[in-house]
Specification:
Length: 161
């Protein structure tokens, strides 16, 4: 085989593999639009039946864990009532590595019928092949959309790239 054919074959083979990886990587991360849609679904089901909603969100039923996206809700005291890995956690003292007091800000500013935005640094929570949520080791910027839903603040965010 000539050197030219080897170079072309290698370029095609490796190019296909790298583009497949890039495609899969991109598809494993949620988008701004998907995060907003997920929050809207969570709002509707929490308004309809919060007990069922919280159970579904906590276990990821009904498509509530999609790629690295998930909704979460905190009560008026800052206790996480829905989250794939932190349900029951007191979030009032939580501060991101860049100094953002996430729950405190959301509880103070959330308004019924208005979606607000908050940006901070956070590790990524993703669902593995079996649907079990796992937490990454690397932090990245997270943009979270949040609103007041009855006695709760519900949110969903994404990591932009």
């Amino acid at each position: 085989m000539s050197l030219t054919k080897i170079i072309w074959f290698s370029a095609i083979f490796f190019g296909m593999n790298f583009s497949s990886f890039a495609h899969d990587h991109k598809n494993s991360h949620g988008t701004e639009k998907e995060a907003k849609q997920l929050l809207e679904r969570a709002i509707n089901i929490v308004k309809s039946n919060k007990t069922v909603a919280f159970a579904m969100i906590n276990v990821g039923q009904g498509g509530f864990h999609n790629k690295d996206l998930y909704p979460f809700c905190v009560d008026s005291k800052g206790i996480m009532v829905t989250h794939p890995t932190a349900s029951g956690t007191d979030m009032m003292s939580f501060e991101s590595s860049d100094g953002v007091k996430v729950s405190e800000i959301m509880l103070k500013n959330a308004q019924e019928g208005k979606v607000s935005t908050l940006s901070y640094m956070l590790v990524r929570t993703v669902s593995n092949m079996s649907g079990t949520p796992t937490v990454s080791k690397d932090e990245s910027k997270k943009i979270t959309f949040y609103t007041k839903v009855g006695d709760y603040v519900c949110a969903s965010g994404y990591h932009p790239y």
